[in-house]
Amino acid sequence: MERSFKEEVEQLKLGAGATFHGEGILAVTKALLQSGVAYIGGYQGAPVSHLMDVLNDARAILDELGIHVETNASEAGAAAMLGASINYPLRGAVTFKSTV
């Protein structure tokens, strides 16, 4: 089930010294932003669907920061995005479910 994080994503704007309070998935998103990613991609699927929901709800904030977000059509598409970090000095992150 898709969940909206439209109101909660405003906390992603908190700066240095501010205390972040929120769901774990928002904390993961905040950590990605603080790590200096230039792009984030992913393929929907439990248990990572909420991360993609947060990223899509925060698209305006991410656009302001110059962070490209893409929902991929497959796990392979998400993994292929990381090729940008091989060929260019960019930090990126992708998420997708995987079999164990």
What is the secondary structure topology, with strand pairs?
Blueprint: H1 24-34, E1 39-42, H2 49-57, H3 59-64, E2 68-71, H4 75-81, H5 83-87, E3 92-95
Parallel strand pairs: 1-2, 1-3
Helix pairs in contact: 1-2
Can you give a write-up of this model?
The protein is an alpha/beta fold. It has one domain. Helices cover 38% and strands 12% of the residues. It has five helices and three strands. The protein has a three-stranded parallel sheet with strand order 2-1-3, with helices on both faces. α1 crosses α2. The longest helix has 11 residues, at 24-34. It starts with 23 loop residues before the first helix and ends in a 5-residue tail after the last strand. The model has no long low-confidence stretch (mean pLDDT 89).
The computed structural class is alpha/beta
Secondary structure tally: strands: 3
- The value of Rg in angstroms is 13 Å
Order of strands, widest sheet: 2-1-3
Query: How much helix is in the residues?
Result: 25-40%
Q: With helices defined by DSSP (H or I, 4 residues minimum), what is the helix count?
A: 5
Structural domain count: 1
